[in-house]
Amino acid sequence: MPRSGDHGDGTVHPQAHDDNLERFEAHGAAPLPVPNEEGYVEHEGARIWYASYGAGVPVILLHGGLGHSGNWGYQLPALLGAGRRVVVVDSRGHGRSTRDARPYRYELMASDVLAVMDTLQLERAALVGWSDGACVAMVLGITAAERVAGVFFFGCNMDPSGTKTFAPTPTVERCFSRHAKDYAQLSATPDDFEAFVGAVSTMMKTEPNYCADDLARVRVPVAIVHSEHDEFIEPEHADYLARTIPGAELILLSGVSHFAPLQRPAQFNQVMLDFLRRLGG
Fold first, then answer.
1. What distances in angstroms separate CA 43 from CA 22, 40, 61, 162, 197, one per listed residue?
2. Measured distance CA(86)–CA(40) in Å, rounded
3. How far is it, in rounded angstroms, from Cα 249 to Cα 151?
4. What single string gives the DSSP state of each residue in the chain?
5. Burial zone of 161 (CB within 10 Å; 0-12 exposed, 13-18 middle, 19+ buried)
6. Confidence of residue 280 (pLDDT cuts 50, 70, 90)
7. Cα distance between the two ends of the chain
8. What is the pTM of this model?
9. pLDDT at res. 23
10. ∠ at Cα 209 (67, 224), nearest 5°?
């Protein structure tokens, strides 16, 4: 694995590679900068943590299942450098956010994002979603299109047929190890990681369940972004989403997997910024 770009503190220059997630397991992503504003929104039995950075046309970053907003550490500086206002949200039960006893549902997490947008008085924003966060973003694109400027949909499915049979790999295990450490450090219930994983896994196995007719109603710009070596999502499902969602484009990332934003940030950031530029203001 390339070692160039190591800053000595475990963080990685955006041009460097961490294909096997060895740095991520040891140190996490690059630390997030100090936000302009951060806080909690009380919504539907949970306290949802958010932070806002910079000024300009807003984009909301929605992280993947079992992770938290800090996983966007290599994307946030690129977005700020492009003149964007960036909002990150810890999904309910993830990171600093709490949850109630109800099962996890993507629609409930989507309503949390709208609550954050209302608190920040954001009428409309582009959404960049990774894995479970992509599903949340697409749910908003279907159910709250007036609030969504576009959806960058990375590494996710919209019905259970889109997933591969799970096969653990060293890279997946390193990511899981990092998630466990971060949960213990950030969560209001630091000893509940096993129950947390079980509850999120149940959601992933049974949801989402959006059919072709649902997807055909999407009226916002969408990029379906799929990695060459994605461990969880069938490439045929990405093709299906791009064909079914009106006007959607399919973007393929070579040489990376489900963890592209961490493995090769510069490659991921380029396609993300290109999509946001196409959306305009």
1. 36, 9, 19, 31, 22
2. 16
3. 11
4. ---TTB-SSS-B-TTS--TT-HHHHHH-SPPPPPPSEEEEEEETTEEEEEEEES-SEEEEEE--TT--GGGGTTTHHHHHHTTEEEEEEPPTTSTT----SSPP-HHHHHHHHHHHHHHTT-S-EEEEEETHHHHHHHHHHHH-GGGEEEEEEES--SSGGGBPPP---HHHHHHHHHHHHHHHHH-SSTT-HHHHHHHHHHHHHH-----HHHHTT--S-EEEEEETT-SSB-HHHHHHHHHHSTT-EEEEETT--TTHHHH-HHHHHHHHHHHHHHH--
5. exposed
6. confident
7. 39
8. 0.95
9. 97
10. 60
Torsion angles phi and psi, residue 30, rounded to 5:
-60, 140
Which among 196, 21, 239, 33 has a CA at the least distance from the CA of 103?
Answer: 196
Place of tokens 């993947």: 64
The sheet with strand 249-253 has its strands ordered as: 37-43, 46-53, 84-89, 57-62, 125-130, 148-154, 222-227, 249-253
Rounded (10°) CA dihedral 59, 61, 62, 63: 170
- In one-letter notation, the amino acid at residue 181 is K
- Token pair, residue 268, equals 């991921």
Neighbouring CB atoms inside 10 A of 206's CB total: 12
Q: Which amino acid is at 38?
A: E
- Region of residue 121 (left: phi > 0; alpha: psi -120 to 50; beta: else): left
Assigned CATH for 22-279: 3.40.50.1820
Instruction: Tell me the pLDDT tens digit for each residue of 184-217.
Output: 999 999 999 999 999 999 999 999 999 999 999 9
Q: Which two tokens stand for residue 42?
A: 């009380």
Q: Which residues of 140-153 are buried (b: 16+ CB within 10 A; e: fewer)?
A: bbbebeebbbbbbb
By the 8 A CB rule, do 135 and 109 touch?
A: no
d(C-alpha 232, C-alpha 278), whole Å:
28
Around Cβ 117, how many Cβ atoms within 10 Å?
23
